[in-house]
Design goal:
The chain is mainly β and 105 residues long. Helices cover 0% and strands 43% of the residues. It is globular and about 60 Å long.
Length: 105
């Protein structure tokens, strides 16, 4: 069980949920045009800050998480619920919304 400490707030995701910090892509300008933040696509990569214990099956057994804090992941474009803590944006999502774990080269 991982618990994230963000300033004075402690967050422990429940069940099969994870707390994700979206990773910002490098700022790109094409032909001298600056793309406003409102027109940019949401990032689909993030780092898991904290993860819950896992899902409970119908027969009461705990199914452990496949991911852990520190993993870099890919997730669906509209996955999770956006939250703000001390001005920083995070997502809370179910493990099922994670498409894959990015492995180091």
């Amino acid at each position: 069980m991982a618990e994230a400490v963000l300033s004075k707030v402690k967050i422990r995701p429940l069940g099969d949920r994870v707390l994700v910090k979206p990773l910002e892509k490098e700022k790109q300008e094409r032909g001298g045009l600056i793309i406003p933040d409102t027109a940019k696509e949401k990032p689909q990569e993030g780092e898991i800050i904290a993860a819950g214990k896992g899902k409970t099956s119908d027969d009461g057994k705990l199914i452990p998480m496949d991911v852990k804090a520190g993993d870099k992941i890919l997730y669906g474009k509209y996955s999770g619920t956006e939250i703000k803590i001390d001005g920083d944006e995070y997502l809370i999502m179910h493990q099922d919304d994670i498409l894959g774990v990015l492995e180091p080269k």
